[in-house]
Every structure is written in structure tokens, then in C-alpha cells.
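Q&A log
Question type: sequence-to-structure
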Amino acid sequence: MKKLLFLLLGLVTLIMVSCKDTSGDYVANLLTYTQMETAFSDCLSVATEYAVERLCPEDELSYALGYGFYDYESQAYRITMPTSARAIVDSLTAHGQGALIDSMVLHINRAAEASGNAIGSAFSSARSNLSYTNHQAFVSTSNTGALTSYFKTQCGNQIKQSLQTPVQMKLNEKGVPGEWNNILSIYYTYNPQPVSIDLNGYITGKIVDGIFTEMAKAEKLVRTDATWQTTESLELVFGN
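Response status: OK
Response body:
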């Protein structure tokens, strides 16, 4: 009898070990859509906050730590002049006016960094209207940035459009339009052919792209590090 009992216990243990869920599929099937959607929203909220904190510093300490579009991560997010302005940049540099370009680039990035509140609001508004299909796939996927990628695909253009006006206001505050007009006036003395560049659209697009890229890093942390699962929903959905 004892031998039979030990045999049964061993068999149960073997089955449990062999059926261990490493993909997340089993867990996903036990969750409701509401639970998963709450976790998805929480994840994107945490990721947005993470990205804004790093690319839009609000204090001197953050700048000292190297945060901000201009300096963060070896200048990976620095917003430079658009490729469509290459001829302008090359012309002014060749005539010893490169410092004007450098000044404008700095002020463009300072305007982007000062747009944190508007960025947070735009992303929050878009996130509140985001709908999901195939919920289980977002839980069990091996793509640690799947939610961020989906959010960008669904709402990226909407976010960019909603940010153009507040970004333009920050560009105005930093004196970027005046610098740009001065650069153009100098360029036209060398080349009178008119130039038309949507500077606001370009800058806003770079801001949005940078935020989404940083968000994907935070999403990975939420999925893989228990200390980032800061809400009940995050722990429930991603903690397994």
C-alpha cells in the first residue's frame, strides 16, 4: 500500500513538473479580458512615466544624471537637423556659421525636454481609448515590447498630431523660429532657392519616436522584473 502511495505521489510530481507553464499561455487562459486590459494599461502608464522622466527632465539633478533628449544615452535621442536641411547645414558650416546650427539644435532639444507635461497628457489620452484583440498573445509573447509597439501602431499618428501645437509653443519659448529664420536668411545669401521644411512636424515626430523607444525598455522591465510590477494587475498578469 505504501509503495503504491509513493508511486502515485511520484507520478503526480512528474506530471506537474512536465506541465510547468513557461510560455504564459496557461496563465493567460485563466485571466479575464478586464484583468489583462487593466494590466496592459498599467504597463503602458508605467512605461510612459519612465520615458518622460528620462527624456524630459524637470530638475537640475536629472540633467546632472545625463537625462534629456540632448544628452541621454550617448546622445541617442538628440534631435538634430532634418536630412532635408542637409544643404543648409553644410552651407553654413562651410562659411563658418556652424555655431548657429549648434545653437538651434540645443534649443530644439530644450524645447522637447520642456514638453513633458504635454507628452504625458497626450499619451494618457490616447491610451484611454486603446482597444485590444487577442489578449492572450500580449501576455504569452516573447516580444518584451509588444504592448508598446501595438500602442505606437494604433495611436502614434494621433499622438503626434495632438502634440504639434504644444511643441510649437515650447519651440517659440526657446527662440527656435527666430534662429531658423536667421539661418535661412544667411543661407539665401549663398543660395537663393527657396526652402520649405516642416520643422515642427519633424521635431514632434522625433519626440514621439524617442518616447516610444524608451517605453519599450520599461515594458521589458515590467514583464521580467517583479520590482516593476507595482500594481495588483501587473503582478497578476505578468508576475507568473
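Response note: The radius of gyration is 25 Å.
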